[in-house]
Amino acid sequence: MPPTPPSRRSGTDDKTLAVALKYDRQTDAAPRVVAKGDGEIAEAILALAREHGVAVREDKDLAQLLATVELETQIPIEAFVAVAEILSYVYRSSHPEAAPAPGAR
């Protein structure tokens, strides 16, 4: 599975925050924070994501929560639902044939 998109937020100071996650269902029990930063570092993370075709999802609250996690550490349980939604989005984006038919649940 490709890396999970970085979460991004713009605060009132216009400083961007980005957090990138990685999840390999073969080796990881949960997604891990693999990059994070604000300002120029955040912009570099976002540029790399775009360069490699990784979708970016903007979610201020999630980015702030994930920014508190140490690098190479699994995400906290509080973030599981939001991150699961992002993983689902990424999977559907990269595997459109696997998306459920309209109206299917």
Describe this structure in words.
The protein is of the alpha+beta class. It has one domain: secretion proteins EscU (name from scop, 3-Layer(aba) Sandwich), CATH 3.40.1690. Helices cover 32% and strands 22% of the residues. The chain is built from 3 helices and 4 strands; from the N terminus they run E-E-E-H-E-H-H. The protein has a 4-stranded mixed sheet with strand order 3-2-1-4, sandwiched between helices. A hairpin with a 5-residue loop joins strand 1 (4-10) and strand 2 (16-22). It is globular, with a radius of gyration of 14 Å. The chain starts with a strand and ends in an 11-residue tail after the last helix. 26% of the residues are buried. The model has no long low-confidence stretch (mean pLDDT 82).
Mean pLDDT: 82
What is the string of helix and strand elements?
Answer: EEEHEHH
Domains counted in the coordinates: how many?
1
DSSP E strands, number: 4
Largest sheet: 4 strands, mixed
**Coarse morphology:** globular
The end-to-end span amounts to 23 Å
Strand order of the largest sheet: 3-2-1-4
